[in-house]
Amino acid sequence: MDSTSETSQTFEKSKNIERRFLEQKSRGVSGLDLVLSLQSDLAKLYEDISMLLRKKICLSDYDELHRILNKWDSIYSYYGLDFGNIKIEKYRSYDPEFLAKNSFKKYIRGVVIKCGMHKTVTVLVQRKVTHHPTGKQIPRNTKYLVHDPYSSCKIGDEVLAYETRPISKRKNHAFFRKIYQ
């Protein structure tokens, strides 16, 4: 079976699970009960997506699979459950940093240290600067506000963000992708 048919089947599974979730939610079932009732289907979906992400697939499918994972992960984390992290091998042709270098002129790589604002996270970027008189390496930190439209970042996530037009007074970077190691 080729990866395009597997990908389309996985998208169809995700749509079916989401449709059942919304139908039951419209009937008044609590969100936690919904997530727990769909847990086995979501575990199978998680396994399918993790297998697909290890294969070479086109970039749009790769992004769509990550969007699906982020959506269900955010629903799980809202109720205090753990959906899990998918580890992506370093030999992947769609390395996030490689994509960021080729797609954007300027990007930052840092760790999320605060995510209490709506659609905004604070990212700490650490770098080392040479002190010219002594030649020693001095650590420097910079905090950036990053636009996260789906609120998919959590504290401790390593992320890539790219520079955009000013979104607000201090926010001029947008979330690109999490880095899984």
UniProtKB/TrEMBL annotation:
Q: Which Pfam families match?
A: Ribosomal_S17
- Alphabetically list the UniProt keywords: Ribonucleoprotein, Ribosomal protein
Q: Does the keyword Ribosomal protein apply?
A: yes
The family database entries (CDD domains) matched by this protein are listed as:
Ribosomal_uS17
Q: Name one GO cellular component term.
A: ribosome
Signal peptide (from-to): none
Instruction: Give the family from UniProt.
Output: Belongs to the universal ribosomal protein uS17 family.
Q: What is this protein called?
A: 30S ribosomal protein S17
What organism is listed for this UniProt entry? Vreelandella neptunia
